[in-house]
């Protein structure tokens, strides 16, 4: 085995958690590689979620998740500002729809305080309907959570990976770990594309984290994938709401919500279904119709608008009510499992926590000569000035004045950039997540061929 | 920059409206289009059959598109392509992005001719996964004829209306085997000739009363689930699915301009002459009637251009009332165009109506309150096809009351 394949740290899984850990390790003098079996970063739970930056108001007080979500919210809000990741602080209203739910609203506020979030408060029904005039009739009470925000989930993983790669961390995609062994001083990983040797291994394999954990000889948790189906409505629905509309949560699920997206659409979902297959991201007729039924009550006008997309994601739920993060100091193995729907929010705090743990466990954290440079991500926020409306950008480069995806107003220049980025798009889905191209209401009727042709010609 | 008339969309309807505006004595007429070239959807339709009603000859789609571009330019219409109207910064002021950057154009009158598109898979709520290999006809035609990209091997075509047959021809051209056309209606809805050519000539079956219940595959489509007349489901191994027809107007600019939207067509509510609910803004083409053939769209757009020119010559009074009384349809009718009355005008165009179901010898009645305004017997009605009724009852409409077009229950068949 050559030195080319010897690392200080291997991170298995390049979702939002794995890339955040890669980014965190980039500030130290370490040879680090991030691996993922998919051909892009953020392809599991990280790409198909509700895209909400949570305050953690409804997490379990005292849990690790509670602490990391609170810290992560703060870190990611600041990071998004610096990296140009689309983020909007819309706030949320949690709405009760019957007497029993209304009674539980005070508990929601109390729990929020126990989680260290003090700004959640009750509002009157009059205030509720003034704030959300299109809300369905019959609400019985509401709590406002002013700091709940919406964020672009795709740019987040890509930004972390870009920053890490820029600081010398390797990113190897389309590589699956097939066997794990250990000799006296290192881990040996056999993969679908050669073998690696590493002092430390981080398991950030999301939906596969328990199976990988078994390969390292541990068995603390089992992933029980929970499928969430979601419906994206046309941008014409965006004026129907100003904040995230949350239901009163139950033990099992946060329930069906309606939220704006940073791209100017409206999102409805998710369902919560236990599925046996860890790759079963199919939507179902029952799921979609169930979501429509929920929308009829929450935001009745929504169902008159066109649907732009439907999708399903899997959350890595486990039998435990909290994150499953363990650092095995002697083995030089860190397992980051059970990161449920709050992983996007908590990602930077999880990375801090994991890397601190590895440092305490003996990983040498000597600072690198240069601090990693925060990347500047392409502007995907509907509310920001995007390339097509930026006179200066178009003057400097007319490719930004050539809109090729009409519904989402994506320019030739932005598609070109996505193909040449440090973490480039390697397929049309990658172009879509980096630019929004073909993601709009026509789903490619007008632009699909042109975008595919530009991709094919590089 | 200021123009007398801004036409948004350089398809057959936009070009026809612009030509009529110019011939009606309008000063500067500017047509903008976001595509690379003017001509609209016919540019992408390599097959013949265009121009019968308006140009009195039979042309291929690209030839037909070229004729309309030449005709408009010859009249003095200015056309700018690669230029997309992205919104309105004030009434009558369009924001756009083009090769020269971001600009605003003030227009005394605006004609919206932004066309229609086919509802994609998600909008039809077809469940399953999201692999590659899922098309609409519009995307497929550009994929094959413009970009020459590979498609697949075996395809199911969803729909059996005119455009569905166009999709079959494009698939054949690309070397893809069309396994079947699938329609949830009891019969195909296109011309009998097309049906024979495809079923008998090409041996592609049409599965009627059948719907697509799911599309599956990981990276690439590997099967579709179809549900037949008895409710039984079966899996069809294909790598390509083409969702055809089921047209919806591209109505974003109309909605952003604050125009009322007709619940049937989902395009701007319009009286004769493309008069919308906002004075000074007119609408033409498949934005208004999704979707007619190009020649019908162009021909009807000529009268929209004339109406816009007349409005300009009368002083372009924006305080004037726009289209007012609604003309609604009752189930099983799908939509009607024009769907607003305009007491100030007497339209010379026929009224288009559509049904959601097949009807034999239906009696179509127009009522206002309890007043019967008109009654017509049609030979038949076919879903996804327009049928014409006269417009002579417009003169008998009373103000401030909706009119209703319905199918007389005695004649339902």
Give an account of the 3D structure:
The complex is a heterodimer of chains A (458) and B (413). Chain A folds into three domains: 1-87 and 151-223 and 320-382, FAD/NAD(P)-binding domain; 92-146 and 225-315, 2-Layer Sandwich (D-Amino Acid Oxidase, Chain A, domain 2), CATH 3.30.9; 387-457, no CATH class. Chain A is built from 13 helices and 22 strands. Chain A has helices spanning 16-25, 64-83, 99-103, 105-114, 125-131, 153-166, 209-215, 285-298, 343-360, 391-396, 412-420, 428-435, 448-457; strands at residues 6-12, 32-36, 52-53, 87-88, 92-96, 121-123, 141-145, 149-151, 170-173, 177-182, 187-191, 194-203, 226-233, 244-247, 257-260, 266-269, 273-274, 307-315, 324-328, 333-337, 403-405, 410-411. In chain A, a hairpin with a 2-residue loop joins strand 11 and strand 12 (194-203). Chain B is of the alpha/beta class and 413 residues long. Chain B has three domains: 1-118 and 246-323, FAD/NAD(P)-binding domain; 120-243, 3-Layer(bba) Sandwich (FAD/NAD(P)-binding domain), CATH 3.50.50.60; 326-413, Immunoglobulins (Immunoglobulin-like, Sandwich), CATH 2.60.40. Helix content of chain B is 20%, strand content 31%. In chain B, the strands form eight sheets. In chain B, strands 1, 2, 5, 6, 7, 8 and 19 form a seven-stranded mixed beta sheet that branches. A five-stranded parallel beta sheet of chain B has the order 10-17-11-12-13. Chain B has a four-stranded mixed beta sheet with strand order 20-28-24-25, with no helix packed on it. In chain B, strand 24 (363-368) and strand 25 (371-377) form a beta hairpin. Chain B starts with a strand and ends in a 6-residue tail after the last strand. The relative contact order of chain B is 0.13. The interface between A and B is large, with 43 and 41 residues.
CATH C-level label of the largest domain in chain A: Alpha Beta
Q: What's the CATH superfamily of the largest domain in chain B, by name?
A: FAD/NAD(P)-binding domain
Report the count of strand segments of chain B. 28
What's the rounded overall pLDDT mean of chain A? 96
Poorly predicted spans of chain A: none
What is the first-to-last residue Cα distance of chain B?
Answer: 57 Å
The strand count of chain A comes to 22
CATH class of the largest domain in chain B: Alpha Beta
Largest sheet of chain A: 8 strands, mixed
Strand percentage of chain A lies at 15-25%
Individual helix count of chain A = 13
Structural class of the helices, strands and pairings of chain A? alpha+beta
Q: Kindly estimate the percentage of residues of chain B that lie in beta strands according to DSSP.
A: 25-35%
Query: Which architecture of the largest domain in chain B does the CATH hierarchy give at level 2?
Result: 3-Layer(bba) Sandwich
Number of domains of chain A: 3
- The overall pLDDT average of chain B reads 94
The CATH homologous superfamily of the largest domain in chain A: FAD/NAD(P)-binding domain
Poorly predicted regions of chain B are none
Shape of chain B: globular
């Amino acid at each position: 085995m050559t030195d080319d394949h010897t690392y200080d740290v291997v991170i298995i899984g390049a979702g939002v958690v794995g890339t955040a850990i890669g980014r965190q390790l980039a500030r130290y003098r370490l040879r680090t590689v991030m691996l993922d079996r998919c051909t892009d970063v953020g392809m599991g739970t990280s790409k198909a979620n509700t895209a909400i930056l949570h305050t953690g108001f409804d997490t379990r007080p005292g849990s690790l998740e509670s602490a990391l979500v609170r810290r992560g919210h703060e870190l990611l809000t600041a990071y998004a500002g610096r990296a140009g990741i689309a983020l909007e602080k819309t706030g949320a209203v949690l709405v009760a729809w019957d007497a029993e739910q209304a009674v539980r609203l005070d508990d929601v506020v109390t729990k929020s305080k126990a989680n260290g979030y003090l700004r959640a408060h009750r509002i009157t029904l009059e205030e509720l309907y003034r704030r959300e005039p299109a809300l369905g009739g019959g609400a019985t009470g509401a709590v406002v959570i002013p700091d709940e925000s919406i964020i672009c989930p795709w740019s987040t993983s890509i930004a972390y990976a870009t920053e890490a790669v820029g600081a010398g961390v390797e990113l190897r995609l389309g590589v699956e770990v097939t066997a794990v062994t250990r000799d006296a001083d290192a881990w040996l990983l056999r993969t679908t594309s050669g073998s690696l040797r590493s002092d430390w291994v981080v398991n950030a394999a999301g939906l596969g984290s328990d199976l990988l954990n078994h390969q390292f000889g541990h068995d603390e948790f089992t992933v029980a994938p929970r499928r969430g189906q979601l419906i994206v409505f046309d941008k014409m629905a965006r004026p129907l709401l100003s904040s995230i509309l949350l239901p009163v949560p139950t033990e099992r699920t946060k329930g069906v919500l309606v939220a704006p997206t940073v791209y100017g659409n409206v999102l409805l979902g998710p369902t919560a279904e236990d599925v046996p297959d860890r790759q079963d991201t199919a939507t179902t007729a029952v799921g979609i119709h169930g979501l429509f039924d929920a929308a009829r009550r929450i935001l009745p006008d929504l169902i008159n608008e066109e649907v732009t997309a439907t999708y399903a994601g899997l959350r890595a739920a486990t039998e435990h009510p909290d994150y499953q993060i363990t650092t095995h100091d002697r083995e030089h193995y860190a397992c980051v499992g059970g990161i449920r729907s709050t992983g996007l929010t908590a990602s930077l705090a999880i990375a801090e926590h994991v890397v601190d743990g590895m440092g305490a466990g003996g990983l040498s954290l000597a600072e690198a000569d240069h601090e990693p440079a925060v990347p500047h991500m392409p502007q995907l926020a509907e509310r920001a000035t995007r390339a097509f409306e930026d006179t200066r950008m178009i003057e400097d480069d007319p490719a930004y004045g050539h809109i090729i995806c009409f519904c989402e107003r994506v320019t030739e220049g932005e598609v070109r950039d996505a193909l040449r980025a440090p973490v480039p798009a390697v397929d049309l889905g990658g172009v879509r997540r980096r630019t929004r191209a073909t993601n709009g209401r026509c789903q490619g009727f007008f632009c699909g061929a042109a975008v595919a042709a530009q991709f094919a010609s590089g | 920059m200021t123009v007398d008339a801004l036409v948004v969309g350089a398809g057959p309807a936009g070009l026809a409206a612009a030509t009529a505006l110019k011939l009606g004595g309008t000063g500067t007429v500017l047509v903008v289009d976001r595509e690379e070239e003017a001509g609209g959807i016919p540019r992408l339709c390599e097959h013949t059959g265009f121009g019968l009603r308006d140009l009195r000859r039979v042309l291929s789609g690209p030839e037909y598109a070229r004729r309309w571009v030449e005709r408009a330019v010859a009249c003095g219409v200015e056309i700018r392509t690669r230029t997309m109207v992205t919104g309105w910064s004030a009434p009558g002021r369009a924001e756009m992005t083009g090769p020269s950057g971001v600009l605003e154009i003030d227009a005394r009158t605006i004609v919206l001719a932004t066309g229609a598109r086919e509802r994609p898979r998600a909008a039809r709520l077809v469940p399953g996964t999201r692999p590659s290999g899922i098309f609409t006809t519009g995307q497929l035609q550009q994929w094959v004829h413009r970009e020459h990209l590979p498609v697949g091997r075996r395809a199911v075509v969803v729909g059996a209306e005119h455009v569905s047959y166009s999709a079959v021809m494009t698939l054949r051209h690309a070397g893809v085997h069309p396994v079947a056309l699938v329609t949830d209606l009891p019969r195909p809805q296109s011309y009998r000739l097309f049906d024979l050519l495809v079923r008998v000539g090409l041996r592609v079956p049409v599965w009627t009363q059948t719907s697509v219940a799911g599309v599956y595959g990981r990276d690439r489509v590997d099967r579709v689930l179809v549900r037949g007349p008895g409710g039984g489901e079966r899996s069809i191994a294909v790598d390509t699915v083409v969702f055809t027809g089921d047209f919806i107007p591209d109505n974003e600019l109309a909605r952003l301009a604050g125009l009322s939207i007709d619940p049937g067509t989902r395009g701007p509510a319009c009286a004769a002459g493309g008069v919308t609910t906002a004075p000074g803004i007119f609408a033409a083409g498949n934005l208004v009637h999704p979707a007619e053939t190009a020649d019908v769209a162009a021909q009807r757009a000529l009268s929209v251009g004339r109406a816009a020119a007349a409005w300009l010559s009368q002083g372009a009074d924006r305080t004037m009332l726009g289209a007012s009384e609604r003309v609604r349809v009752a189930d099983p009718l799908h939509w009607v165009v024009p769907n607003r009355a305009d007491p100030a005008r007497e339209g010379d165009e026929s009224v288009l109506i559509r049904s959601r179901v097949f009807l034999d010898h239906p009696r179509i009645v127009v009522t206002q309150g309890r007043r019967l305004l008109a009654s017509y017997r049609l030979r038949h009605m076919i879903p996804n096809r327009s049928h014409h009724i006269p417009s002579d009852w417009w003169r008998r409409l009373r103000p401030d009351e909706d009119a209703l077009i319905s199918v007389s229950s005695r004649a339902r068949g």
